[in-house]
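Request:
You are asked to prepare a plain-text protein record giving the amino acid sequence and the backbone structure tokens, at your earliest convenience.
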Amino acid sequence: MYPAPSPVVTRHRPPPTGTAGGPRGALVDERLRRTRRAGAPVPVGSRLDLAGAGGERLRVALEAVQRICPEFTPARVLRDADGTVVLAGMAGRRAAVAKCVLDPGEERGERFARELAVNRAFLRHRPPVRVPRLIADGDHTLVTEFVPGRVASPQRHPSLPPAWTDLRATLAAVRRINAWRPAAGVFPDEVNHAAQLARYQPFGLLTDRDLSDLKTLLHDVCGRGEPPREFGHGEALPPHVLLSPTGPVLVDWTSAGWRLPGYDLATLWVALGESPLVRRQISQSAQAEGRPARDCFLINLMLVLAREIRHCELAVRRAMDRPGSASADRSGGPAPGEEKRLLLRRLHDDWALTRRAIRAAVGTR
């Protein structure tokens, strides 16, 4: 054996700056500095300013949060609108998010009560996907753990769809949720389609033939027994999906409950109008279990589209009432209400497509 030659390239190393004891102590100190982990991530938001115009609201919300979680330390304001304040900070050594409803009206208070009930149920019945864990709750306030990640899309109907890999992972997470069977009586039962059809009929969307076709499909699906049920998120939309390093995380479980199979898939299908390949995969997944699953998916599509068209029509009306809504944006973009009008046109196209599919399904009986 020959002695090892000198290296061809010599790496220049800075002089050791470790503890006393020469280079060995320096290497130990350097190793400790390398393995030291950073603290828990805190979500991005506006800076906490208690002296600003909304300082009084933030102070009231912070007092309500610290009454149920004294160790909560605020860092950022994630949201301050619609009578709700959302703060990000630390609860002890864990990154946390606190939500406080300052103006609990009838509808807002009911939604918060449902959200709180679902978060408490998740402590006893863990779903097959990751959800933010409840830390503390009480008095229209709850504190949950913060999940690092980015929102799939801040828009309810994204004009620029997320990446294909993100959408495929989201679809897989939704399917795992739909296949979950929690204990009976834990989550509410939302299978009441007669009331939903009666709600949307006065808006002029559903014709007499539409109602007849939907009742025919419901009769075939239910038969003589109870209608099939499937647990779902209820609002499986891109703003409610966090893409974390460990996979998609679904948030905002206010509408979770039992519905006809395919409701979450129908919600995703309606929201992803700019992703035809994902839509095709959603349709194939919804029809993989045969004709009853396909009929349930079509019924859910009609109900979800009726809701989204109604919301979009109201948004277009509000945009048109604002001054300057007909003029283009200074940056060269479309007018403030133009995007909503284009979305409304696409939703009506989807409505016509779904109506033809339902009539074809009824015609094969």
Q: What stands out?
A: The longest strand covers residues 72-81. The mean pLDDT is 81. The domain at 46-146 is CATH 3.30.200.20 (Phosphorylase Kinase; domain 1).
